[in-house]
TrEMBL record:
It holds the Pfam family HTH_3. This is HTH cro/C1-type domain-containing protein. The lineage of its organism: Bacteria, Bacillati, Bacillota, Bacilli, Lactobacillales. InterPro entries: Cro/C1-type_HTH, Lambda_DNA-bd_dom_sf. SUPFAM superfamilies: lambda repressor-like DNA-binding domains. CDD domains: HTH_XRE. It comes from Lactococcus garvieae TRF1. Residues 1-44 form the HTH cro/C1-type domain. One of its GO terms (molecular function) is DNA binding.
Length: 86
């Protein structure tokens, strides 16, 4: 884990958060991991396959990848409020 963290320029505790706390790395780190380990982004995010039939989902996914961490946090909060089961 320490070599992986060093290769990304982050602390081991950050990698631990990704692994154990369900925290998703910042978009720029996801892109770096994807390139370094030749793994598609949708696989890193746990999306089995992006179907060409679902263009809206793919478009939204691509848009989210362009957001910085602050914007992602805002989007997450908004989506959770809108789609909560209350």
């Amino acid at each position: 884990m320490s070599e992986f963290a060093e290769s990304l320029g982050v602390a081991k505790s950050r990698v631990n958060m990704w692994e154990n706390n369900g925290v998703i790395p910042r978009p720029e780190l996801l892109v770096l991991i994807s390139k370094e380990y030749k793994t598609p982004l949708h696989i890193l995010l746990g999306i089995e396959e992006i179907s060409s039939d679902n263009k809206k989902q793919n478009s939204l996914f691509q848009f989210l990848l362009t957001l910085d961490n602050n914007q992602l946090e805002k989007a997450d909060k908004i989506l959770r409020i809108i789609f909560s089961d209350d």
